[in-house]
Task: structure prediction
Amino acid sequence: MITAPSIILCAPQLGENIGAAARAMKNFGLSDLRLVAPRDGWPNERADAMAAGAVDVVASARLFETLHDALADLNLVYATTARERGITKELLTPAEAAKRLRAAAAHGDKTGILFGNERAGLDNDDISLCDAVITIPTAEFSSLNLGQAVLLSGYEWFRQADATPAARTEHSPFHRKPTRQEMFQLFDHLEGELMKSGFLYPPDKQPPMIRAIRATLHRARLTNLEVQTLRGMIVALVKGKHRVKKD
Result:
């Protein structure tokens, strides 16, 4: 089983931001929260309040006096920063970092992502302890709050193994796909009324027109309720039911 990265917050200031980071972690399957010398002490009630459904992540957070101690057991660590630091380090996008973290974890390495405090971020000495730097691309304003930065990094980690389809249609559990018989009945009903109305004319054009109509209905991926609704609409149009009364 692949072990998710530890999230290390170096000298975080506000309990609310620690709680927001914990909540972001919970969203994407991260659980090991490490705190290095939080400014307002620990535990922090404001962190609990902000964490909402992720109080367990806050409760199990580990407290460290120094960054060296927090990183000591990790094999691969990436630092996050939004600023050029003038040091030679490989810069990774969150997506590339997540890919490498997963590859390392698959080989049994313990990994981590390091975040600086809200005011100044990480300094060069902090970054020097890490293997590479993650920089989150932004349009113009590069500063993100701590919770947002953890959220984006956690999302990319989760996305690397996520099997959610790129697109899908969700139906109510009370609706089902129509049977072939229900679709055949819709075809017969619609085509019969179109024939009576003169729409399917001339006769030699009828087969391709009917195939086009059926293809359109198939692409719509109708539910059984939608099939029934369409048949009701056909009846209403033919018989003039539910006409709007004019004053």
Observations:
- The two ends are 71 Å apart (CA to CA).
- The longest helix spans residues 180-197.
- The chain has a mean pLDDT of 90.
- Residues 183 and 218 are 9 Å apart (CA to CA).
